[in-house]
Fold this sequence. Notes:
Elements: E1 12-16, H1 21-32, E2 36-41, H2 45-57, E3 62-66, H3 72-83, E4 89-94, H4 109-130, E5 134-143, H5 156-176, E6 182-188, H6 202-211, H7 221-232, E7 243-246
Parallel strand pairs: 1-2, 1-4, 2-3, 4-5, 5-6, 6-7
Amino acid sequence: MSHPLFSLSGGLYVVTGGTRGIGRAVSFRLAREGATVIANYVRGHAAAEALANAARDESLAISLCRADLTLPKGIEALTKAATAASDRLRGLVYCAATGVHKPYEELTLRHYDWTFALNIRAFFELVKRLLPHFSPGASIVAISSPGAVRTVPGYAAIGASKGALDALARHLAVELAPRGIRVNIVSPGAVATEAWGAIPDAEARLTQLADRTPLGRLVSADEVALAVLYLCSEAGRAIVGHTLVVDGGASLPL
């Protein structure tokens, strides 16, 4: 049994991008601590169904909400699902992300708009819609990236969007704290999820990153989810506007 400070019993949490990769791990971790979770997704029906089946096997309160957050109707659908029990909406974990891995010269405005539509604009809109429904003590966690603060090959559009996400989250942390809503950022190191399939030379990059990490390995999605749990729980009640880096020490100046 976990420590009561980490219990999320009775709370409702929305996890965007909650059926794959880090989002999937977050959905399970929060639900295992007693939360009711709405796991949002758009594509990947097999992954969503697998999550739902696994949740039933563990008797976890995880439901699915298919909604494209780049569209007004998607924001509306997820808001409606989340506010059906508005008296216990305790958190939002924004894991949804997309982007194009190309050098700047090959990027187009379409790439830019597509990336920013999900990575930052949808976050802005969703928080605004959910804001009146958060209960006191609620927590918002934005999942960022090392590319928000340092350069990564082929990451200009995504890195810029994550930098914007970080900036907005910090401003929200100051503005929403008086309302009893804490906002923080989790910046994971490299996690070997299927998202790496879209990255050139992914295997070589992952090996290189693991070799230069003091832990000697990549961090796991569940280790990132544990950091999210901490920020959502009573144990993290004094953490506001912080960027929690979960990378096994990879970003240390060695």
